[in-house]
């Protein structure tokens, strides 16, 4: 019995250590759940009540995804329908949710991506007040790549997504590359690329008085060619594979921005996640 006493003490100590670890793990999990409930349920509910008090309404939201599913469905439906005729009213096709929700709930209105609201305002005076503000009262939102690890993984932290001192630093770094005198020097190269594109259209049209082109694809190629020539001294054809990968990268990033990100989902081996990691 005397020889078993140290063994029992060691066993009790081990059990105590395991219990302490389990308790610590339980507390950590509970803390995480409470923070999740606070950020996903309580904060959006509080913001929604404040907006309603000010008369700002919007479409009913899902607790987890907000209005993301409705947003995606409306966009797909609008873009899949053929254009009835040529006109400049492109908002109903490119962003149908703005037109439909504004008609239904008035302006301004609010909609949600996950637990984060997007307040849609209109009118030149309001837009001017927001865009020209220098006090920092209107911070750049984090509903895009800054709030979605999947999107941030693909497009990084560029000038578009940065705020504050980081934005100012990046702006100072790239400003010399875009001063007016430098841009003027690109005009001959850009003009030559545009002339080449027009010559190709003439060959494609031949003797026909009318013919169709894919304007979106043509101008995307034109823009890529300009960037390749003025920035890297090469042509679009030489870097074609790089631009194709960038196009796919942008599509995957936009898809991530349009959907609610649930913590940890980027590690699930779905087809799109595997492609993002590759």
Describe it:
Pfam families: p450. Belongs to the cytochrome P450 family. It is found in: Membrane. This protein is mainly α. Among the domains are: 1-54; 56-138, no CATH class. The chain is built from twelve helices and two strands, in the order H-H-H-H-E-E-H-H-H-H-H-H-H-H. It has a two-stranded antiparallel sheet with strand order 1-2. Strand 1 (109-113) and strand 2 form a beta hairpin. Helix 6 (149-155) packs antiparallel against helix 11 (240-257) and helix 9 packs antiparallel against helix 10 (215-232). It is extended. The mean pLDDT is 79.
Classify the oligomer: single chain
Rg over C-alpha atoms, rounded to the nearest angstrom: 27 Å
Low-confidence stretches: none
Helix-strand sequence: HHHHEEHHHHHHHH
Instruction: Calculate the mean pLDDT score and round it.
Output: 79
Strand order of the largest sheet: 1-2
- In DSSP terms (H or I, runs of 4 or more residues), the helix count works out at 12
% residues in beta strands: under 5%
Report the sheet with the most strands, covering strand number, pairing sense and barrel closure.
Answer: 2 strands, antiparallel
Total strand count, please? 2
Global structural class:
mainly alpha
Distance separating the two termini: 62 Å
Helix content: 55-70%
- Looking at the structure, what is the overall shape? extended
